[in-house]
Amino acid sequence: MQRVVIVGGSLGGLRAAEQLRMAGFEGELAIVSAETHRPYNRPPLSKEGLLATASIDELELTARVDLGEASWLFGRAAVTSDLVNRSVELDDGSRLEFDGLVIASGIRPRRLSAARPLAGVHVMRTWQDSQGLKADLRPGARLVIVGAGFIGCEIAACARELGCSVTIVSSDPVPLRRSVGRVVGEIVRVAHEDRGVVFRSGVGATGYLGDETVTGVELADGSRLPADVVLEAIGSTPNVEWLEGNGLDLSDGVLCDQDMRVLDAEGVVAVGDVAKFPNRRFDDIPRRVEHWNIPVETAKRAARTLAGALAGDEADQAEFRPLPAFWSKQYDFRLQAYGLPHLADRVVELDESIADRPVFSYMRGEMEVGVVAFGNGPTLIRRGAALGRSVARTV
Ligand SMILES: Cc1cc2nc3c(=O)[nH]c(=O)nc-3n(C[C@H](O)[C@H](O)[C@H](O)COP(=O)(O)OP(=O)(O)OC[C@H]3O[C@@H](n4cnc5c(N)ncnc54)[C@H](O)[C@@H]3O)c2cc1C
To answer: Which of 292, 301, 336 should be mutated for ligand 1, with most atoms under 8 A from CB?
Structure first.
């Protein structure tokens, strides 16, 4: 019987397992997960999950089809791999041989390199991370958030609701600039300032103060901010070390073709946050996309590619051009987006904007590459659908 090993048992790994069954793969599935819990949904961890007393079981993601002959190896990590001899070595010294391999090992938070490990300094990726932070977010606590991306802003909003004082430190001039640009970033900044969040923009953090527990944050301009709690939210590092030594391109993720086939490796595909792939909807440049719908979409394509290869069938000829979609909940507003707004060189506010629910179109030259809305669901859905239908492609 053929065996497919899936490394990573979160959203991407689970959806890849399902999609392999849906694509007709009848062999054995072995899913290796460094985490000890069944797959769970991460978005609530930085939103309502920080405010409510939820249990991890409520966040569990379930398989939508019968996975049949599937073994889950929880609390085990792949440490090395030999893609020529087709095996993966796990951290308990055991070895799993495979006919096909799915790389679904995701990402981890990037760390501030100069910083020492101190109590009170947190990152946010796992259920355990959210529980640790939640315990420290007591009313009156002084929280400093390093990084002004989505996770930093969402946690700032929760922390204000929990009665903490919040300062966001970022080398960017406005929050969310790298993903949605200055215009939308400015609206988000004002929303936070109206609720008492203080921004220290245009200056990065260089390290932390304190012996065992953090007492403050040092900034690049030499100033110091007092802190009882720190959240580091400064981007991500792909989990690819276990693939080293196989001659793969592992610069910022695993390089794939448009069928999610890993370049220079037979019978190996990648899915989700770790996969760097070209999306011809935009251009031919391979990119990683850290949005919830991408593990789902890439799992579909990767499973068809791998199941086809294992059965000796022709590759899927249709062009793979998934439309990225993401959302963020902060205070009483919901920001939603389609496409890749960060590729734009111009942002246009649309006539459909109403009062405090603006909608923006993101243009690169004459091509629309994204749409972002605050609330305004019907307009967003209509514009998103139009974007999805468009042949937004440059060559
Ligand atoms: C706090 C938070 C909030 C988010 N909010 C949103 C949102 O509002 N909207 C949105 O669109 N997206 C959001 N996202 C992004 C979304 O959750 C991710 O895109 C999605 O979880 C990626 O799934 P994945 O399976 O590719 O990777 P991951 O979820 O990172 O899973 C990878 C798994 O592989 C495991 N692993 C790593 N290395 C190994 C190894 N060597 N061996 C075995 N296992 C390994 C990891 O422990 C992990 O369990 C959010 C993410 C976070 C963290």
So the answer is: 292
> In this structure, what token pair is assigned to residue 322?
């998934």
Residue 105, ligand 1, Cβ within 6 A: yes
Nearest CA to ligand 1 atom 17: 42
Tokens of 136: 């420290």
Kindly state if the Cβ of 127 falls inside 6 Å of ligand 1.
Answer: no
Alpha-carbon distances, residue 274 vs 126, 238, 254 (angstroms): 16, 6, 6
For residue range 271-326, what is the model confidence (pLDDT) as tens digits? 999 999 999 999 999 999 999 999 999 999 999 999 999 999 877 778 999 999 99
Q: Which residues pair with 217 in a beta bridge?
A: 208, 225
Q: Contact 240/252 with Cβ under 8 angstroms?
A: no
Q: What is the 3 state secondary structure string of 213-252?
A: ECCEEEECCCCEEECCEEEECCCEEECCHHHCCCCCCCCC
**Mutate-to-test residue for ligand 1 from 11, 95, 323, highest number of ligand atoms within 8 A of CB:** 11
Distance 107 CA to ligand 1 centre (A): 6
Read out DSSP for 325-351? Answer: EEEEEETTEEEEEEE-GGG-SEEEE-T
Measured in degrees and rounded to the nearest 5, phi and psi for residue 240 equal -125, 0
Model pTM?
Answer: 0.96
In order of 53, 103, 250, the CA distances from 240 in angstroms are 34, 9, 7
